[in-house]
Amino acid sequence: MANLSLPKDFLWGYATASYQIEGSTNIDGRGDSIWDVFCQQPGKIADGSSGVVACDSYRQYKQDVALLKLLGAKAYRFSISWSRVIPHGGRSDEVNQLGLQYYVNLVDELLSNGIAPMVTLFHWDLPQKLYERYGGFLNKDEFVADYVRFAKVMFEALGSKVKYWITFNEPWCSSILGHSSGVFAPGRSSDRERSSEGDSSTEPWIVGHHILIAHGAAVKLYREEFKPRHGGIIGITLNGDWTLPFDADSKDDLEACQRKLEFSIAWYADPIYHGEYPASMRSQLGSRLPSFSPEEKALVHGSNDFYGMNTYCANYIRHRSTPATADDYSGNVDILLSNKAHQPVGPITQSPWLQPYPPGFRKLMKWISGRYGRPPIYVTENGTSIKGENDLSREEILKDDFRAEYFRGHVNALAEAVSLDGVDCKAYMAWSLLDNFEWAEGYETRFGVTYVDYQGGQKRYPKESAKVVAQLFNSLCQ
Ligand code: PNW
């Protein structure tokens, strides 16, 4: 094996998100988010749970920081609950000082332990009030103005201390899962068995468009008013997984693989790096894909200081020869977990969509690097659940060999991309620091390198994989 290494100052650590870990949803003046309300609707969350308690990190954040220190992490990526800071969310609504103080305390605790904070401004938990007032993401002018004001409050409070900013986490999920399939909050869909409101043929594309503009506007504000003083960097985090042809001999399947990558990643990254949506999307979606005014284009084009990359797995892709349906969002392809020869893409996990394929991580990094002119890549999420993990005893859960093996494969693939393919990757945040509220899957699916005892005061117990991640980076970073 070739000599693999990563730079000595490579930033590695762990990621979480506010609604998944904080709990204390009704404490100290926090307002509801769309996830608080979504969780109350029967049938939306697998185990009928919610983030009301979660990992109790609002109260146990010092334990979280002590844990990060114990695990040797250099950085911690967490997100801000917008409705904790501005309970009603809007630009004329009051700031909740108690909520804001929580994040100041967390950042101070991280810094005094030598851990770099990486802040995600928005990880899906839109203030419910903004959804009720004007439909949330669907109203461009209101949403962009309210989001930029929220960003400004956070830059003012934390700008001198935080050097890494992420505007949005995985806008694909807010658009598609929130406004097309309807499996995530706010749950809109054309499927009337799922939702009484929504239009899957138009809304996801409108939502994505408005998120891009809000991202661009917040970046402009940061660059003009905060970056000159504080020198931090800002970007967006996009999700997407590597694609493999269902039939390796089919030219159609190979083309379909590219189209699927464009519909998931280039949808957002092309406007940011190239100034327009991919041709494949414009041709399939026609006028349902909004277009940018010259001012909007200028705002979005060039708006990333780094590329935030989330990836978990890979899929086999099969071209469809029938015309695309109005609610198709993947480029008119079949997304499959095994190929023509019935080979699975990877072992099964607890997450129906996730079958790990480490070589795809290296290939996807290379694809992003090539398409976007070798941007600095910050991997902001990568990790796995384990089939049946939640049914095991605590002792068994702590021996998470499957997860350790996942990290060995993926960190190695990352080192190959950097050492052998010339990819400029500067950071890796494993998902996740803690077992936590896994959205529509509730607490049945665990992603943590730390076991959280939900019946025992949310006490934290590091799993074997946490040691493996530290060993991997300690030996690679030199
Ligand atoms: C990401 N999919 O979500 C999120 O950023 C995390 O909050 C989440 O806990 C983590 O991955 C694990 O799921 C995704 O269906 C959820 O393809 C679903 C999908 C992708 C990403």
Automatic annotation (TrEMBL):
One of its GO terms (biological process) is cellulose catabolic process. Its EC number is 3.2.1.21. It is an enzyme of class 3 (hydrolase). Keywords: Glycosidase, Hydrolase. It catalyses: Hydrolysis of terminal, non-reducing beta-D-glucosyl residues with release of beta-D-glucose. PROSITE patterns: GLYCOSYL_HYDROL_F1_2. PANTHER family: GLYCOSYL HYDROLASE, LP05116P. This is beta-glucosidase.
